[in-house]
Design a protein that fits this description.
The protein has 76 residues and is mainly β. It has a domain at 3-41. It is built from no helices and six strands. It starts with a strand and ends in a 22-residue tail after the last strand.
């Protein structure tokens, strides 16, 4: 189940809620009014060779996902 971020327009409270993708919304735990789902982004951090986090390193190579993209064995 994904973790969604919400913002309550009534009391300006921000909160997270773990719920199914079919969920239609959530009520604010602070004032119990309907909250709006916020647009959220995630951060990806990988470790460099020295064990320190590195968020500016190169991305791993992407494999093909479809026919003739290499994923089914017909492509390069």
């Amino acid at each position: 189940m994904p973790l969604y971020e919400y913002h309550c327009p009534t009391c300006n409270h921000k909160f997270d809620k773990l719920q199914s993708m079919n969920a239609t919304g959530a009520d604010c735990p602070n004032c119990e009014q309907p909250a709006k789902r916020a647009i959220s982004v995630f951060a990806s951090v990988s470790k460099s060779g020295d064990g320190m986090p590195n968020s500016t390193g190169p991305l791993p190579p992407m494999g093909g996902g479809g026919c003739c993209g290499g994923g089914c064995g017909c492509g390069p």
